Amino acid sequence: MAQAQHSPKSSAAPATATSDVLRYVNPNIGTAHSRWFFYTPAAVPYGMAKLAPSTNGHYGNPSGWEAVGYDTRQNSIEGFVHFHEWQVGGVSFMPTTGELRVKPGELDGPATGYRSRFDRKNQVAEPGYYRVLLDDYNIRAELTATKRVGFHRYTFPQSEQAHILLDIGNKQGESSDVTDASIRMLDATHFEGYVSTYPKYVQTYDPTGKVNMYFAGEISRPPASVGAFTAAGVQLNTQSAQGKGAGLVLNYKTAANEKIELKVGLSYTSTANALANLRAEAATLSFDQARAQAQATWRRELGKLAVEGPDEASKTKFYTGLFHALLGRGVASDVSGAYPRHGGQVGQLPQPTTGQARAEFINTDAIWGGYWNLTQLWALSYPEWYGSFVNTQLQVYKDKGWFGDGLANSEYVSGVGTNMVGLAVAAAYQAGIRNYDVNLAYEAVRANELNWRNRAFGSGKMDTKAFVERGYVPFRDEYKQYKGEWFKTDSTGSYFANSHTLEYSFSAFAAAQMAKALNKPADYAQLLKLSNGWKLIYNPQTKLMQPKLADGMFAPNFNPSEPWRGFQEGNALQYTFFVPQNPAGLVAALGKARFNSRLDSIFTVSEKNGFGGGKEIDAFAGIKSIYNHGNQPNLHISWLFNFSGQPWLTQKWTRRICDEFYGTEPIHGYGYGQDEDQGQLGSWYVITALGLFDVKGFTDARPIVQLSSPIFRRATIALAGHKKLVIEAPAASKTNCYIQSAQFNGKPLANCWLYRDELMQGGKLVFVMGSQPNKAWGTQVPPPSAQ
What is the dihedral of CA 733, 735, 741, 747, to 10 degrees? Predict the structure, then answer.
């Protein structure tokens, strides 16, 4: 494939004013090897309508999750697509001129289809807006959106043969092949249709499920004629098309610089609701008004975290990370509260109680690792979205009997198979987010940890029986591939036994704390005992977590750096530090001196490799490393020095990860082509740059916040509960990354942590920073560990 020439200036959003937070968001960062849902600039926070150019979306991906959609190394665009979620993609539009082509064509030969080459110097990507010049047609394409409505504006040259292709019947991104599609003109300027797909992960985890996408659109000018196409070919002067490969072509004669606009209402439930969404959100909006509204929304939501200081590159990383955090996991419910239920059914969300906004139903990738980034950010300043996540999962529990690890229109799309949803729900309760039936929530959390009978495969944790009965999951080497199934898990054990044991121990701790808060003493005792399952797989001889067989013996042929064997997306060197519920217990098991020297040396060595997979452009490049910031299992361990008496090392290494792993280039963004997972790595940067983090993901009965080196000299945070926190570090810089002393609301702060409820009252947190560590600060009372 041809390689693009990159310039930071050509791909950055233009600065409209020094005070405009949008100037620090560059959606083009990290767009090499980026996932289907990563690059969607023409959208609002948590939008259903996520419009973006596609360079390779119709290629799909063989495993159902790999990078596809927009790749900064590719130089032609094949369409502008409306739906971008985990396992959800579809409805592509493309303006063209000249001879009619109805196939997108090949990347290596743009002339083989309707795709067009483009030059990135003629591309603008901003939060809520996208613009590009299609070189082969001399057409300027612009995109923007409301929450559920996509807007297109195409500026044509003079042409006797101008076309707008509504290509709906082909796979897009992670959606897999289209199983059914239909589109028809309703009158001269209105159209509607639907697309049904059967994504790879739905096939695997929820085989009777399906993903439906509906749309209803209007055009600013009637076409001169309309044609249809399907996989079988083109039918001229036809107003509708159905089946695989379906689409319509709107034909025009255009004057120079003539603009044609489209508004497209979207829904996952029906064309009627797509039309209702269009009328509710965009009936009278012009394109320019929609863009202004979208960007005002982004300014408001991004502006809830206001950072100041001379470090411009860090501001770009910060706000681009926040942009991705607020973009991921989009709304699936309509303005009416209708939402997609299993198998193409339609449900209705309950009316909110007086004074509360209705929680939205959202599509979501797995929350695996999200408790170390996304949920902490939500709980800080965006509690309504944490509430929507919890309410979505509780609705699925009511509808289907189990939480769903990942969800695509209520279908289980597990992905990792461990289901940490119960932990995230328990943490929401502890963080004071309770806009749901608490008793139902506890029932679902308990079931997620302890129940296995008739458990749905797509809900994950298929080895719950083994864990509950033994306290650990037995390792089964033969399950690497068993009767054609890779990485099998069942009631007797798992190939990923060790990572499962560690994760289930953590989630059992979270459930135990919720049980205690709700006065469930028997559940509390059982769950707390299970939270120590990590001790059963810790080998005191090797000082590592080691796969253990059903007979109680450690597995032979153990290689600590070998990925996958016993550990999902990682290895023993990485996962040995996965005891977030009891860091003090892990420190004691290893010995404090060994713990600190080993962990410090891990970071010293891994810094040479960019804290991950080096410069290899591959989501799994770092899973064989000793530390891998590009994936979830390691995201808390740079904060563990706060628990081991050396908080200055947390200050040192969190700062260096922020400075070196994260970049501001299309290729070096989140590492090199790492897996950003709908805002997780961006969220980690945001909260770490503020100097706030909780290793335990707010699962404690009284959650805490650990402190580290803030990157910015001043940050003003709009807290949940309409309060304000100001964090000041006047001398902060790359050199001055060590905390010398601190004050909270005028009182000296001797410890490297605070109770979260105190912090969330707001006020002022002030750090005195220096270039050398103050090894006395923050060591007096370590953060609470086991409770």
Answer: 0
Nearest residue to 34 (alpha-carbon basis) of 687, 665, 683: 665
Neighbours of 194 (CB within 10 A): 21
First to last CA, the chain: 55
Give the residue among 356, 363, 379, 355 at the shortest CA–CA distance from 327. Answer: 363
**Contacts of 40 by beta carbon, 8 Å cutoff, 6+ apart:** 50, 51, 52, 84, 327
CA 423 – CA 530 distance, rounded (Å): 14
Q: Degrees (nearest 5) of the Cα angle 214, 417, 425? A: 75
Instruction: Decide the pairing of beta strands 225-230 and 247-254.
Output: antiparallel
The closest of 664, 489, 563 to 6, measured between CA atoms, is 664
How high is the pLDDT of residue 787?
Answer: 65
With a CB cutoff of 8 Å and minimum separation 6, the contacts of 353 are none
Residue among 307, 246, 252 at smallest CA distance from 92 = 246
- Please, which residues bridge with residue 217 across strands? 191, 264
- 632: amino acid identity, one letter: Q
Q: Find out whether 87 and 175 touch, Cβ atoms under 8 Å.
A: yes
> Helices in 544-679 by DSSP H: which ranges?
572-575, 583-590, 592-607, 647-660
Helical spans, DSSP H, in 457-531: 464-470, 497-517, 521-530
State which H helix or E strand residue 485 sits in: strand 485-486
Q: CA–CA separation, 403 vs 420, rounded Å?
A: 9
The Cα–Cα gap between 75 and 80 comes to 15
- Alpha-carbon distance of 365 to 351, in angstroms, equals 26
Instruction: Give the per-residue pLDDT at 364.
Output: 95
pLDDT recorded at residue 12 = 38
Collapsing DSSP states into helix, strand and coil, what is residue 370? helix
Residue 327: CB atoms within 10 A of its CB come to 26
CA distance 341 to 361: 10
Residue-wise over 535-555: b if at least 16 C-beta within 10 A, else e? bebbeeeebbbbbbeeeeeeb
Question: d(Cα 183, Cα 278) in Å, to the nearest integer?
Answer: 17
Strands 763-770 and 723-728: parallel
| Mean pLDDT, each 10-residue run in order, the chain (787 residues) | 35 45 97 94 98 97 91 97 98 98 92 96 98 98 99 99 97 96 98 97 96 98 98 94 97 98 98 98 98 98 97 98 96 98 96 81 95 98 97 98 96 91 98 97 98 96 98 97 89 98 98 98 98 98 97 97 96 98 98 98 97 91 94 96 98 98 95 86 98 98 98 97 96 97 98 98 98 97 88
User: For residue 238, how many other CB atoms are within 10 A of its CB?
Assistant: 16
550 token code pair: 């059903």
CA-based nearest residue to 678, from 37, 141, 155, 163: 37
Which residues have C-beta within 8 Å of that of residue 23, sequence separation ≥ 6?
A: 13, 14, 15, 16, 17
Largest CA distance in the chain: 80
Question: Which residues are 408's β-sheet partners?
Answer: 411
User: Taking the mean position of all CA atoms in its chain, how far away is CA 229?
Assistant: 35
234 DSSP β-pair partners = 229
Q: Are 778 and 647 in contact (CB under 8 A)?
A: yes
Other beta carbons less than 10 A from residue 601's beta carbon: 11
What pLDDT does 6 receive? 36
Task: Return the structure tokens found at 235.
Answer: 């039918």
Q: Whole-angstrom Cα distance, residue 394 to residue 391? A: 5
d(CA 338, CA 334): 5
Which residues does 478 contact at the CB level (< 8 Å), separation at least 6?
none
